Amino acid sequence: MSRPRIAVTTSARTGWRVYPLINLNIWITGGRGVRWGVGRIADLQDVDGLIIGGGDDIGPELYGGTLGISARLDPERDELERSLAEAALERNIPVLGICRGSQMLNVALGGTLDQDAWGTYGRDRKIKTILPKREIRVEEATHLSLISGQAPMKVNALHTQAVHRLGKGLRVSARDAGGMIQAVERVRDPFALGVQWHPEHLFYAHRQRAIFRALVAAAGAYQTERNQTSAMRSELARP
Fold first, then answer.
1. Which residues contact 3 (CB under 8 A, 6 or more apart)?
2. I need a surface site. Which of 12, 52, 103, 215 has the fewest CB within 10 A?
3. Structural domains in the chain plus CATH codes
4. 64 contacts 114 by C-beta, under 8 angstroms
5. Cα–Cα distance between 206 and 197 in angstroms, integer?
6. Distance between CA 228 and CA 235 in Å, rounded?
7. pTM of the predicted structure, to 2 decimals
């Protein structure tokens, strides 16, 4: 069986340096990435998984917010990623959201965001670094706890926004010490996990690689099912 094919969205501004890191994580856990940018239609027919990457703030009009402190907006990317998230969830394609991607997963399912998360949870708590210096606590009996373990986890933090009201069918799977949501996940299939941090920068940590491994494993299962369905249709179409 070939490696499952994972579509990866990234920022037009920073994707040139972020995508190779994400693709490395996909490759070392058994998958194959393909960059998916603005201008490409939201047709996921030939992919087995989706990663919505970080960078850029999400336009508040998508969740009923008001334009405030957000400064890095990309409406075309917003439209593409929301369409991709909705299509993936409808077709049972596994999804991993990273930072902004976690927020987009929440928005696609009808949730809202806190546009000034550090103002809400205390600017004295703010840590902004690609180094794993922020401690989070994984919630019990969640998919994330099965993937990366129950023990407290050190992660990085580059965000200014955070999940506020949960989208339909989502639950919290991790919070930081201040109570800010750091990970969300879909309660039922398909696999859909959103993490507020950037595990692609922490590929040397086995608990972070496990997140990509879980996505690739789910994508592999989807690929097998997709191939079996295709073969069955071909068989039925024979005269």
1. 27, 30, 31, 32
2. 12
3. 5-237 (3.40.50.880)
4. no
5. 15
6. 11
7. 0.94
Q: Give the whole-angstrom CA distance, residue 72 versus residue 45.
A: 31
Amino acid 87 reads A
Q: Which amino acid is at 44?
A: L
- Catalytic: which of 159, 164, 185, 200? 200
Per-residue pLDDT of the chain in tens (239 residues, 90 and over written 9): 799 999 999 988 877 889 999 999 999 999 999 999 887 776 798 999 999 999 888 988 888 876 665 557 788 999 999 999 999 999 999 999 999 999 999 999 999 999 888 888 887 788 889 999 999 999 999 999 999 999 999 999 998 899 999 999 999 999 999 999 999 999 988 899 999 999 999 999 999 999 999 999 999 999 999 888 777 777 677 77
- Which segments of the chain does DSSP mark as H helices, in order? 15-28, 75-90, 100-108, 117-121, 143-148, 206-237
The DSSP symbol for 57 reads: B
The yes-or-no answer on residue 198 being catalytic is yes
Task: Tell me which of 159, 164, 198, 201 is the catalytic residue.
Answer: 198
Q: Is 200 a catalytic residue?
A: yes
| Cβ proximity of 148 and 199 under 8 Å | no
Cα dist from 65 to 3, 61, 106, whole Å: 40, 6, 14
Question: How many whole angstroms separate alpha carbon 136 and alpha carbon 16?
Answer: 29
Task: Return phi, psi of residue 31, to 5°.
Answer: -110, -175
Backbone torsions φ then ψ of 155, nearest 5 degrees: -135, 170
> Which structure tokens are listed for 238?
């024979």
Given 99, 143, 185, 201, the catalytic residue: 99
